Amino acid sequence: MFLLLPFDSLIVNLLGISLTVLFTLLLVFIIVPAIFGVSFGIRKLYMKTLLKIFAWATLRMERGAKEKNHQLYKPYTNGIIAKDPTSLEEEIKEIRRSGSSKALDNTPEFELSDIFYFCRKGMETIMDDEVTKRFSAEELESWNLLSRTNYNFQYISLRLTVLWGLGVLIRYCFLLPLRIALAFTGISLLVVGTTVVGYLPNGRFKEFMSKHVHLMCYRICVRALTAIITYHDRENRPRNGGICVANHTSPIDVIILASDGYYAMVGQVHGGLMGVIQRAMVKACPHVWFERSEVKDRHLVHFIVSCILGTCINNTSVMMFKKGSFEIGATVYPVAIKYDPQFGDAFWNSSKYGMVTYLLRMMTSWAIVCSVWYLPPMTREADEDAVQFANRVKSAIARQGGLVDLLWDGGLKREKVKDTFKEEQQKLYSKMIVGNHKDRSRS
Amino acid sequence: MGAAHSASEEVRELEGKTGFSSDQIEQLHRRFKQLSGDQPTIRKENFNNVPDLELNPIRSKIVRAFFDNRNLRKGPSGLADEINFEDFLTIMSYFRPIDTTMDEEQVELSRKEKLRFLFHMYDSDSDGRITLEEYRNVVEELLSGNPHIEKESARSIADGAMMEAASVCMGQMEPDQVYEGITFEDFLKIWQGIDIETKMHVRFLNMETMALCH
């Protein structure tokens, strides 16, 4: 019993010292720079080191594979079906033409063969579906020491396993608590700060304080995720009175954009922790939070700038924006955000993971590396309508980020396909048949 | 991903039974898992996860075809509740492209199989005949959702087409002779000489370097 006492206090002392050291480090290297907006360059160094390690790991795996005379499994993401871009009309005409052993003037109005087209199309979509494919995470070519992205388990040697184990240790026992502490600090500062600022009388001072509180807290959050962001073309940054529009892969986009500029946000109301944060933010600055189904709030505001959100989609494509954001006649500043999946996959499949699981995944990855491109501003021309303008902005963003332009509306993932689309197909088909029918009755 | 010995044997067995290559089987297996949510079987509800399928007017017939015992070669009629991967491949194999290396007999067999699949789609009560009612049902489904076509027009279109089919199959009919329905032999007769093989298959992309981790 007595022998334990000195050890006890020793352990307690050690613990105390290490915690103090940790917090000092935290403060000096992370929070203080965040407040003032400077950077020590630690994260860039970290990224370079990691890249070297990943390259080595992939080399080892390839060597292992070569020894066994096999090839590494490279997932094929472009789909398995060669879809022919012919239209409904062309295909049906062709099918009927091939059945022209019947009398030429007696073109039947409806043939048993018409069902072929729909049958085949149906089978093709069951085998391989454009939209569902977009919603699964991208697959990597080199391994980033995260077991979630590895498909080649059998080529891992002992050295690699040790490295991987070390990686797990670092990520879960060192990085994770650090990040959680930072995130906690950042969020609580945000909530407290904005509430305090909310009590100030309206005026220039309030705006000034609000701006800095927001920026500071977002910068802390950025460091909490170890997000390494490269900004391009900062001269095109959104200015007062404009609308900032970006492609949306995850909730992290908001943090990334907001840490570089002071935005009033337009977004969907969330419950839980997000809801608390949202309500606090509103006190200091005119954000607008709406229910997803209601869209009348959009013309409320004296926007300073607003972020536009859509459904989370995989990084490789840009879905159609909600039409609403483009109907107000302001200048639009497009922003393209592209994540590098090598360090951590930022994609959030909301039907597979909840918010907390997603955040944990983010915080246990190595880092979030992304590039932000500020594109030159666009305004709606006199002869375009909202939809065309939206598409123009969307393709500019897609082109910049190297993302694939996709005409689908991301809302498909949640709701069933709108009946109008289904009707379009059927209308087209029936027009063809009724057209023939009418011709016959006239002759 | 199956790296175990038994899995590759299974693949070889499936290759033999259904005629797909091992690459294609692997791809289809991934798709199967995606549709079933990692379960070993698929039910009708799982097809709701394919948004593109909603656009198809005969969606319900296609989904039904997957569970049709006649297509699964499990019986003369009725529907299965759920299907496993082998059943899934069996249905998909009806849409395999015609292999250029097949001989004439095999081509003929393949063609018959494809037409039988189609026949089953029309003949929903499994009595071996496509009656006027069943035909009308298909036409209505294909034309459904269009407010400009009244039910009457859809019916008359179906009736007209049915008369065509009757004339091909039975020749001139007596005034009081009733045409009971299209049997499978009549169905084949209608399609004689017409090339349907190129229309009833799914075109797989040529996949390179897709070696599995055996």
From TrEMBL, chain A:
Residues 242-340 form the Phospholipid/glycerol acyltransferase domain. Keywords: Acyltransferase, Lipid biosynthesis, Lipid metabolism, Membrane, Phospholipid biosynthesis, Phospholipid metabolism, Transferase, Transmembrane, Transmembrane helix. It comes from the Eukaryota. Pathway: Phospholipid metabolism; Lipid metabolism. InterPro entries: LPCAT1-like, Plipid/glycerol_acylTrfase. Its main location: membrane. One of its GO terms (biological process) is triglyceride biosynthetic process. Coiled coil: none annotated. It holds the Pfam family Acyltransferase. GO terms for cellular component: endoplasmic reticulum; membrane. It is found in: Membrane. The keyword Transmembrane helix applies. The chain crosses the membrane at residues 12-42, 156-174, 180-201, 300-321, 355-375. GO terms for molecular function: glycerol-3-phosphate O-acyltransferase activity; lysophosphatidic acid acyltransferase activity. PANTHER family: GLYCEROL-3-PHOSPHATE ACYLTRANSFERASE 4, PHOSPHOLIPID ACYLTRANSFERASE. Belongs to the 1-acyl-sn-glycerol-3-phosphate acyltransferase family. This is Glycerol-3-phosphate acyltransferase 4. The gene is GPAT4.
